[in-house]
Amino acid sequence: MHEEKVSFANPGGQKLDGVLHHPQAGIPRGGVILCHGMESNKDSDKLVLFSRELARLNLLALRFDFACADPGKFEEITYSGEVEDLVAAFAFMRDRHAGKIALLGSSMGGTVALLFAAQHADVATVVTIAAPVHPERFTSRLLTPAQVQQWRKTGYTFYHGRRINVSLLHDLEKINVPEAAKKIDCPVLILHGDRDDVVPVEEAHELYGYLPRSKRLSILDGADHRLSDPALMDRALSEAVEWLCKHAG
Question: pTM to 2 decimals?
Answer without folding.
Answer: 0.97
